[in-house]
Design brief:
mainly alpha; 0% strand
Amino acid sequence: MRIRSWLRSIAEAFFSRRPSRPDRSDPGLNPGACRSKLVSARIGRVTGKGVAANLREHTPKWFLMSMVALLVLANTLNIAADIAAMGEALALVAGGAPHFYSMAFGVLTVLLQVFVPYRRLAPILKWLTLFLFSYVIAVFLVQVPWGRVLHDLLIPKLQWTPDYWMMLVALLGTTISPYLFFWQEAQEVEELRLKGAGHASEEEIRDDLQRVRRDTFIGMFFSNAIAFFIMVLGAAVLYAAGVRDVTSAAQAAQALRPLAGEFAFALFAGGIIATGLLAVPVLASSAAYAVAEAFGWPEGLERRWYEAKRFYAIITVATVVGTGLDFSAINPMKALYWSAVVNGVVAVPVMVGLMLLASKKAVMGSFTSGLKTTWFGWSGALVMGLAVALMFWDLARQFL
């Protein structure tokens, strides 16, 4: 009965008519991915609870647990790839053993999350985002055929092969990564706790939602722009030079050195380290938030370790397992690729769950999503679902 009710709520959320009020959550020409992230942050601000905590109350248990399990798997693989990349990048710059550096980075990120409270950790992570612009600078230090880039950007070459659709799912999975939904909503909850916000007036919530809208729109613009420059750098320098099978971040950086120069190499290596220091805490913490909220355990980076032991245990275990994978035969770049594929698959149910929550008055009160957000949000979920379906369909056709 609960599954039937849940499916009915999907239809109601998608097709229900809403009053033609201004949709304060929309920054105008915002794509479905940005609107989904926006919905996530809005739910956190309005409800004061994270993604999994809200889904636990409004979706079937099997749906939540399967989604959380896949999220933890993808995040752990991603942690492994990031920590390995940091160790290799530092070894290239300073010399020494990459595995030693990887262990050091693993310990450092755990200590940061366990002993540095959220109010101090958040500014550190925000400042680390500035190092992402090293990839942008590196692009302008090399020769890029911008005409060809613009042509291929506007007129992509579609290929009906399993590898193509899998790569598309992986690309979408890095853009609409499920862990970002959990992290963004958790951030809103942490900020509310810091403010000691209890019952807020509708006007105060609307003011906060304007800030959420602005932050999300700016963040999505820059994150997608930087991702674009990283892809351009890889295509224009590595792929164009015949470097097609990159098995590690060190190999990519080494291949860049003779083709783009020492400065571009240093920027690329520094960007890898800074990006890893930014990503690993977010990956480990978002997995911990998801598991803790799913089971109703105490959680939060502002809490002391003895106030949320299981929450911090998940952070530690995810990071330790990720670091340990670097000593196995698993290829870090393939782990990164497969984590992106898993993220692409998991993103579909997460986006569906978020849109369901955003349309429920029992959850959002008078702040349910407007008509534009509803249609664009569901359209984004549909595009993700279609890409995943095509990937599985082509895989099935290949093996049958």
